[in-house]
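I would like you to sit down with the pair of lines that follows and say whether tokens and residues agree.
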Amino acid sequence: MFASKNGTPTNPDWYYNVVANPEVEVEVGTARLRIVVRVADNGARGPIWARQKQEVPQFAAHEAGTERTIPVIALEPR
């Protein structure tokens, strides 16, 4: 997941919620999955973020519109 908030100066509220409570449940179709949320460190973030900007160019615009580093969130099964 990407906490871009369309390039605004602050992270989205949900970002702070999942950082504070990283064990969450998500729905994918009809399945409910228990996952752990982890903010990708700089080493892991770089290639993921580069690929996202390439596949969805709006994310490059989001990055250009803010001074903050847009967090990349990894979802890992519990």
Summary: The chain has three helices and three strands.
